[in-house]
What we know:
Helices cover about 45% and strands about 20% of the residues. The chain is of the alpha/beta class.
Amino acid sequence: MPELIPPLQLNMRVLHFYRTYSxxxxxxxxxxxxxxxxxxxxxIEAQVLTLSRDMREPQVDLKGHTVVRAKLDFEIASxxxxxxxxxxxRQLAEQADIIHYHFPWPFxxxxxxxxxxxxxxxxxxxxxxxxxxxxxxLYRPLMRRLLASxxxxxxxxxxxxxxxxxxxxxxxxxxxxxxxxxxxxYPVPTPQDLKAWTGRVGTKFFLFVGVLRYxxxxxxxxxxxxxxxxxxxxxxxxxxxxSLKRQARKHGLDHVHFLGAVSDEDKVALLxxxxxxxxxxxxxxxxxxxxxxxxxxxxxxxxSSEIGTGTSFINVHEKTGLVVPPSNPQAFRDAMDxxxxxxxxxxxxxxxxxKRYQTLFTATTMSQAYADLYRQMLAPVxxxxxxxxxxxRT
Length: 394
């Protein structure tokens, strides 16, 4: 009879706080999800406090962690506000050992100071505020106060740390922990799914996956596609979808196919089947590139732009793919030509991408690094408590 191994005792509670949260495959929510799912194996009980318009389920359990929702009352410049969040935050924070913030979200700064909770705090710095310059000038004093007050700041790549003028002020307490994904949490495409998609889009195509936003640089990709016949598949929906389709029609890009949002199963089937991943983001609003990392995880060569962020930490030029200057359709086209015409080199780059993912970007590696950081932060508190107990006994 095999020996029964007792379950790992949970010895720490971490409260994550961010404006949105769901089990999704991309962006900040996916990072939080991977951290929470990996928490139990590290002896950590994770909770997430978030805002939602839909309050039919104010609290749910999701893959071993608890999600608590506060009512989203209104938004200003994509920043959600909630009248009930402060009370819920105070209640949950009092039970937590570590408060884990996810930046940027100005309302979070307000809650942090208004709650007055004295707990160790870590802040994952997902991105600079790039586009809203006027609002940033108003917000900057509060932002700097928050960043100065938290105990640790974590950024996902050394590239972003080196290029962020904001983080440069706080380098003494910044740590680099790359984001990670769990391959096992993704569905496995069936042979039927793979056959159906290759029958529809072919066996050799470039693939983009992501929300269709202004900083994704898809207009550059469409300009790069002019005069070629490379099949290009664009997966995702978003605010600039209509304008991109107009651009494609205007230039007769019949080989560019917009699929819209697809299921996780279909997305993985396309990632499995594609020839290479294209990621033309041209502004540093693209701070890391989870969708690019998905391409590496699936062993695909990549084309991305050098914008001083985590995209060039995932995709290393001439090793895992090609990195070109931003906003340069000709350079992007030249990179597509090179990969398309040199399949052996493209395949070798894909192998290197998969190796780099396995070495640096797994969810297990990320969860372990955060757990180690949490314990380092709690160590002074634990030592103080032990010293106090020893003094009381003597």
